[in-house]
Structure to design on (959 residues):
């Protein structure tokens, strides 16, 4: 459309404005512009620290029974109140977070690994393999996710890895599709042709040229996947099917608090564990949103 | 058009077969196979009884045979008998299905009723306070665990204020008449529907807004405005008409999700629906019932996809099905 | 002659971008009389499209802002008028056709509907009358089997046909001004010629005034009465069309003329204009064309050249305008 002619007179060519920058620097700069995403990152950082060393700092014991302080609402001594055994809820919540967060992280990692493998295989191999794998993806998409997760956990027992795998089994498909799509579109791109002409082998092409670009949507998807994993694990625990006491997770605490909240009005028993889930998921979502904007390959920096 | 529907339905069959195989296999995966749990048959399993049950349910046959038997039965309408109650699976399911469908349907309607006007309005008033607030609320809504929301609602409206009942579908203690009966049913449904609809509404609002925004920036909307047409025509006849095409698909695909989400809602509010049945059956290892419910859920997903596809073709004039 | 049909004075339009405010249009002024045809010529980024959109009030705000000036249509001020008032003018007295016919029509509505809704809204026709008018318009723009095709959707037409439909829509209420924003840029060369012929023909028949926006100076010769050349948001030369071709008075115009291929006449090398258009985000305290100019002197980097007359009705924004004007002719004016 433009009718100017670049390169007709190299001497009068305006100097390129910006020096070449790496993709990641660009992305970080853009990410920094989203206050909510930065806030989310800060919250998550705080959370991770609190969950890991908070109980130690507070010197509390999640199982310490103290009938004298039972069923108390939030106070200075017990900022999140106590339960019917007088256990401090704050410490229990922090300790419970460890399990929830580690399950969610593990589940996301597993689902990403599986997704990348399947997607890359399908994208690069093409043909029958691609077709077959995509049919498999379709089948998994059609499976009633929550039901099957419940089923697996009930039948196989509520262990750490069972739950992780159960959640991962329902999250890998999205990654697979994204990775495959990236492979398909990038396979044809010019720089792959260029790489081929200088003799780069197939595997090398796959790893050095295609994968980094394919990873971008995957990173965003993974981040948001953490939020989903947290919600699923909490839901499972809430239904009484996840980790069993004394292993506590936020969902489990919510489950055990039902009676206290509904029939005795001890709202703090349900409010705080749930709020933790809420805040964590919200923070992760903000970060994921910020990442999506920051990593969007369509946004060209001038 | 009709031939397209038939073709797509036929395409769905291999999918259904694939799903059923996967489901069937999953159930076989449990350590010791079905009936390993001593709770089967009412907890009175002895070696003899187990043996008899094994014969009766054909559990000693090779897997493929079992699969074919089961699948064949399903197609013929024989969905097996519950290990637990001995009643036909279909009866058990039919008992509970309408409740869940009611819940799901109501939640869907609520979600649409809120998401459409809010999303469209926010898109037409981009950058306004309304837009920021509604977008913020949607974002927050998606992050809210439904069970937490439900629990807090219960605390507020049931315990604290006493306005709404805390469980079940109707008052089991008294028999209400007339308007009171109506309020009785309605009041039992308000919170469960609200909880179930929460996430769907938030997601749908975001989607409606994004879809409308994208369409509002299209060239043909500019053409319509440039022709001096009133803003309402532009928004409804030009923008929305086009935005609705993908929206319909998303909305229809939400129905199976709502169906699944009902599991949690039914749990909190002690509603006798399919979700509760599923959990109970899972704990009791009642495989026929489990398979039955899973099949229904899978059928629902496949059906929703089909309907979404067909609707898309109906609304988008660029697509014609020879 | 009474007051001009359209009068644009000192129009300035800016945009707020991520990198800061950008001035897209800087103090453009021109007039358009009844039935007169004006061409606005410039590269992409010169501000020509924004000028056209501003007349219609279609510049999205935010991020756009009107920084100053006035646009008067038949004496009424359009800038700052309410949406309701603008809607009365748009489509009815001032109509526009756009660059990309593939995306400018609503894919979900029939072509007939898109035309009838305009005439029904502005002219209050009954559905019967509107349908007749729509068929009439489609024939007018050269769509065969007009009545039969009213029920078709845009995707059933080719690019050239879609542009004709857009023209039909624009002319549906017999507007006084037709603004054509690069209507042929997205079309094949042969189709381009057809559309240009169509517009010329329609102008003869219907007598509306035209603002024809293009980057291709070659198109305007047989089409318009006068030309405004834009560069980097400024009007750098304005003249009647014959004058412009015969005695261009701005180096940029000269450059444009030199880069036109011509048929017949002596063979000469096509000379592109070196360099690239400036980044509108950069403010200028000097002539914006200086970096690419063959005629540049020191003064060009220090002082901004205003648009000044070199001849009656002919203005150029160059410090050396008279010298440029007197240089030997570049192109045979009769093209």
């Amino acid at each position: 459309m433009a009718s100017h002619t670049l390169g007709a007179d190299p001497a009068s060519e305006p100097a390129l404005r910006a020096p070449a920058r790496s993709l990641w620097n660009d992305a970080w700069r853009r990410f920094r512009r989203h206050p909510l995403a930065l806030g989310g990152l800060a919250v998550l950082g705080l959370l991770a620290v609190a969950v890991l060393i908070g109980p130690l700092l507070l010197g509390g014991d999640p199982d310490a029974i103290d009938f004298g302080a039972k069923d108390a609402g939030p106070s200075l001594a017990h900022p999140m109140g106590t339960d019917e055994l007088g256990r401090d809820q704050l410490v229990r919540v922090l300790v419970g977070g460890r399990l929830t967060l580690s399950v969610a992280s593990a589940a996301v990692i597993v689902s990403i690994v599986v997704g990348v493998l399947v997607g890359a295989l399908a994208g690069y191999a093409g043909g029958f393999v691609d077709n077959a794998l995509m049919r498999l993806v379709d089948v998994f998409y059609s499976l009633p996710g929550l039901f099957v997760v419940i089923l697996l956990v009930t039948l196989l027992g509520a262990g750490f890895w069972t739950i992780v795998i159960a959640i991962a089994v329902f999250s890998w498909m999205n990654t697979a599709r994204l990775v495959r799509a990236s492979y398909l579109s990038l396979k044809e791109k010019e720089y792959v042709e260029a790489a081929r002409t200088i003799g780069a082998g197939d595997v090398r092409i796959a790893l050095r040229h295609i994968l980094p670009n394919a990873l971008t949507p995957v990173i965003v998807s993974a981040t948001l996947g953490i939020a989903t994993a947290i919600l699923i694990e909490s839901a499972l625990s809430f239904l009484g099917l996840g980790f069993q006491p004394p292993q506590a997770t936020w969902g489990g605490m919510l489950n055990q608090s039902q009676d206290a909240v509904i029939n005795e009005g001890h709202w703090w028993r349900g409010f705080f564990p749930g709020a933790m889930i809420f805040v964590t998921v919200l923070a992760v979502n903000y970060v994921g949103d910020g990442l999506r904007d920051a990593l969007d390959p369509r946004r060209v920096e001038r | 058009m009709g031939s397209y529907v038939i073709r797509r339905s036929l395409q769905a069959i291999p999918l259904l077969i694939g799903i059923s195989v996967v489901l069937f296999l999953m159930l076989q995966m449990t350590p010791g196979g079905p009936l390993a749990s001593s709770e089967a048959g009412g907890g009175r399993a002895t070696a003899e009884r187990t043996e008899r049950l094994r014969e009766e349910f054909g559990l000693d046959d090779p897997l493929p045979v079992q699969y074919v038997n089961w699948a064949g039965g399903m197609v013929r309408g024989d969905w097996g008998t519950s290990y637990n109650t001995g009643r036909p699976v279909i009866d058990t399911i039919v008992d509970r299905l309408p409740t869940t469908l009611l819940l799901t349907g109501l939640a869907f309607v609520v979600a649409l009723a809120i998401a459409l006007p809010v999303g469209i309005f926010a898109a037409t008033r981009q950058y306004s306070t309304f837009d920021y607030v509604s977008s913020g609320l949607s974002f927050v809504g998606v992050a809210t665990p439904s069970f937490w929301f439900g629990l807090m609602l219960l605390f507020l409206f049931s315990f604290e204020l006493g306005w709404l009942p805390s469980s079940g579908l109707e008052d089991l203690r008294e028999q209400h008449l007339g308007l009171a009966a109506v309020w009785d049913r309605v009041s039992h449904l308000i919170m469960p529907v609200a909880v179930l609809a929460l996430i769907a509404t938030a997601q749908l609002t975001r989607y409606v807004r994004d879809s409308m925004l994208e369409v509002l920036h299209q060239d043909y909307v500019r053409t319509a405005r440039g022709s001096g047409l009133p803003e309402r025509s532009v928004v409804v006849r030009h923008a929305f008409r086009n935005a609705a095409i993908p929206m319909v698909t998303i909305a229809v695909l939400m129905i199976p999700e709502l169906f699944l989400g009902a599991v949690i809602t039914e749990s909190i509010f002690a509603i006798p629906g399919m979700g509760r049945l599923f959990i109970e059956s899972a704990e009791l290892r009642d495989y026929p019932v489990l398979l039955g419910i899973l099949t229904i859920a899978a059928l629902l997903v496949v059906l929703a996809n089909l309907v979404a596809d067909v609707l898309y073709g109906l609304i988008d004039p660029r697509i014609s099905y020879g | 002659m009474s007051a001009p049909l359209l009068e644009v004075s000192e129009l300035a339009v800016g945009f707020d971008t991520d990198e800061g405010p950008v001035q897209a249009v800087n103090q453009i002024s021109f007039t358009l009389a009844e039935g007169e045809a004006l061409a606005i010529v410039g590269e992409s980024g010169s501000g020509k499209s924004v000028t056209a959109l501003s007349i219609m009030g279609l510049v999205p705000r935010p991020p756009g802002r009107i920084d100053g000036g006035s646009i008067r249509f038949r004496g009424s001020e359009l800038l700052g008028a309410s949406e309701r008032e603008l809607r009365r003018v748009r489509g009815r007295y001032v109509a526009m056709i756009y660059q990309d016919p593939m995306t400018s029509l609503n894919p979900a509505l029939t072509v007939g509907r898109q035309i009838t809704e305009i005439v029904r809204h502005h002219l209050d026709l009954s559905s019967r009358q509107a349908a007749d008018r729509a068929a009439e318009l489609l024939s007018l723009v050269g769509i065969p089997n007009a009545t039969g095709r009213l029920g078709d959707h845009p995707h059933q037409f080719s690019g050239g046909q879609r542009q004709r439909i857009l023209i039909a829509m624009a002319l549906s209420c017999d507007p006084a001004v037709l603004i054509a924003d690069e209507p042929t840029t997205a079309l094949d060369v042969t189709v381009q010629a057809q559309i240009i012929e169509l517009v010329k023909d329609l102008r003869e028949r219907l007598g509306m005034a035209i603002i024809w926006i293009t980057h291709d100076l070659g198109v305007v010769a047989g089409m318009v009465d006068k030309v405004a050349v834009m560069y980097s948001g400024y009007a750098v030369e304005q003249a009647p069309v014959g004058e412009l071709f015969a005695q261009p008075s701005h180096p940029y115009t000269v450059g444009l003329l030199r880069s036109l291929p011509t048929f017949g006449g002596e063979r000469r090398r096509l000379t592109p204009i070196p360099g690239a258009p400036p980044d509108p985000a950069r403010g200028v305290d000097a002539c914006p064309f200086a970096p690419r100019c063959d005629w540049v002197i020191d003064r060009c980097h220090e002082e901004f050249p205003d648009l000044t007359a070199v001849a009656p009705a002919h203005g150029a924004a160059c410090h050396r305008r008279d010298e440029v004007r007197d240089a030997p002719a570049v192109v045979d004016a009769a093209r």
User: Anything to note?
Assistant: The CA atoms of residues 124 and 206 of chain A lie 8 Å apart. Chain A touches chain C at residues 1-6, 8-9, 12-14, 17, 302 (CB under 8 Å). Residues 89-125 of chain A form the longest helix (37 residues).
